[in-house]
Amino acid sequence: MQKLANRVANIAPFQVMAIMARAKHLQALGEDVIHLEVGEPDFIAPEAVNQAGAEAIAQGKTGYTAATGLPELRQAISKFYQSRYHVQVAPERIVVTPGASGALLLLSSLMVNEGQEVLMPDPCYPCNRHFLAQVGARARMLNCDASNNFEIPLEALDQEWDEHTAGVWLASPANPTGSVLSQEYVSQIWQSVRRHEGHVLVDEIYQGLVFEGEDFTALSVSDDIFVINSFSKYFAMTGWRLGWIVVPEWAIDGATKLAQNLFISAPAISQHAAIRAFESDVLAECEVRRLELATRRKTLIKGLKRIGLPIASAPQGAFYIYVDVSGITEDAMAWSLRLLEEKHVAVTPGADFGARDAHKYVRFAYTCDSHRLEMAIDRIADFIAGY
Ligand SMILES: Cc1ncc(COP(=O)(O)O)c(C=O)c1O
Questions:
Q1: InterPro entries recorded for this chain (predicted)?
Q2: Are residues 233 and 172 in the same domain?
Q3: Which one of 21, 33, 167, 369 has the minimum C-beta count within 10 Å?
Q4: What is the CATH number of the domain that holds 108?
Q5: C-alpha closest to that of 203 among 294, 91, 316, 125
Q6: What is the mean pLDDT of residues 190-206?
Q7: Average pLDDT across the chain, whole number
Q8: What backbone torsions phi and psi does residue 363 show, to the nearest 5 degrees?
Q9: Rg of the chain, C-alpha, whole Å
Q10: What angle do CA 165, 135, 66 make, to 5 degrees?
């Protein structure tokens, strides 16, 4: 009998997928389900981007591109770093990938040896550890507290570093917590990791979606930090499967070889469309959406407080609120499933994001409008009253 490779057994399925499937099923049965579980707002790609994609198809621009991406797109990304974040990033350092997911896969191969470990916060984006597993490496998750903005304490980083450690992976703004790192913190992390001769990755996929704190890029701290980004969140282009990684100059050749072999190229149509994303009208549209997300964030924070769900500190970015529900239940997973079945509100239990306190937490994504969020709050209040 044929068998799956051993590593598959160690890949945990995304719990949120099961919740989404059940939510869709309930919806198909005619129930009005409020979706706060998905990492994708109810926006579609800006119209001008859609049109640019349609034009690319009409003009037959559908073949492979250069492995590192269309030169015009790399140039546009480089200009964006200059105009918005005032940092110079040579286009040659930008490798366009199929989503941030492609960038994470590429980085795992580029920077982590078999048997090595990468330090990352618990909680964090669940796929990170699975990308590492693909290269025979492991994530070592370090406990992070809400009271400390879910940041890895600097002392912990030094204490945990040993001969097996390859680097540290952070995200800002982060999923699932919405926390935003300060430039000062990233700089301190970089100083410490540099002493250990390791690498730092900062996943900036939620860049631009910042409501409090600094919207900066880790590239302003050092050209030797690896930075990942994507068109999925700020530009609402999840299904276009397009992202990028910025690598230090000394890593360009290695990253290029991997891009050639892993992907041949990122999707051509998406790349042609994405060039349009950096023009001022599209950026203005993205800003309007950011402001809409800011309003939703306020609505949800206020609503959660009203129904007695404490938030240690308001998350500063992304579109998530990671809420401690341990005052109500000892099992956030069972609580989330019952909330969906009984009140048709879909949320993501913490189990997807970590181990230590995961059973206490639920992630709420403010991916629908304030009116729907208010409805969700009322339903959750009813649910808690009867729990
Ligand atoms: C922190 C983080 N990194 C990476 C990804 C992958 O994004 P994509 O492959 O759509 O660019 C996600 C998706 O939600 C995410 O939350």
A1: Aminotransferase_I/II_large, AspAT/PAT-like, NHTrfase_class1_PyrdxlP-BS, PyrdxlP-dep_Trfase, PyrdxlP-dep_Trfase_major
A2: yes
A3: 21
A4: 3.40.640.10
A5: 125
A6: 97
A7: 96
A8: -100, 125
A9: 21
A10: 115
Rounded to the nearest angstrom, the distance between the alpha carbon of 16 and the centre of ligand 1 is: 14
Q: Are residues 293 and 166 in the same domain?
A: no
In the reported structure, the alpha carbon of residue 320 is separated from the centroid of ligand 1 by a whole-number distance in angstroms of 13
User: Edge-to-edge strands of the sheet including 199-203?
Assistant: 94-97, 243-246, 226-230, 199-203, 165-171, 117-122, 138-143
pLDDT at position 259 is: 98
Judge whether 195 lies within some domain: yes
Nearest atom in ligand 1 to the alpha carbon of residue 125 is 1
Nearest atom of ligand 1 to the alpha carbon of 231: 11
The residue out of 218, 246, 281 marking a domain boundary is 281
Residue 284, CA distances (Å) to 87, 110, 291, 358 in order: 21, 36, 11, 37
Give the distance (Å) from ligand 1 centre to CA of residue 102. Answer: 10
Q: The domain that contains 320 carries what CATH number?
A: 3.90.1150.10
Domain of residue 232 covers: 47-281
pLDDT of residue 69: 98
Whether 207 and 259 map to the same domain: the answer is yes
Question: Same domain for 291 and 276?
Answer: no
Ligand 1, CB cutoff 6 Å, lining residues: 39, 99-101, 125, 171, 175, 203, 205, 230, 232, 238, 243
Count of domains for the chain: 2
Which one of 240, 263, 281 terminates a domain? Answer: 281
Task: Please report the pLDDT score of residue 131 as a whole number.
Answer: 96
Domain assignment present for 1:
no
Atom of ligand 1 nearest to the CA of 102: 9
Query: What is the per-residue pLDDT across 63-85, written as a single tens digit (0 to 9) for each?
Result: 999 999 999 999 999 999 999 99
How many angstroms does the Cα of residue 98 sit away from the middle of ligand 1? 11
* Cβ contacts of 185-192, under 8 Å, gap ≥ 24: 185/151, 186/218, 186/221, 186/225, 187/221, 188/154, 189/152, 189/154, 189/157, 190/218, 190/221, 190/222, 190/224, 190/225, 192/154, 192/157, 192/158
pLDDT digits (tens, 9 = 90+) for 256-304: 999 999 999 999 999 999 999 999 999 999 999 999 999 999 999 999 9
Q: 240 φ, ψ to 5°?
A: -80, -15
State the distance from the centre of ligand 1 to the C-alpha of 101, rounded, in angstroms: 6
| Shared domain check, 55 and 32 | no
- H helix and E strand count, the chain: 12, 12
One domain, residues 173 and 78: yes
Whether the bond between 176 and the residue before it is cis, its omega within 30 degrees of 0, is yes
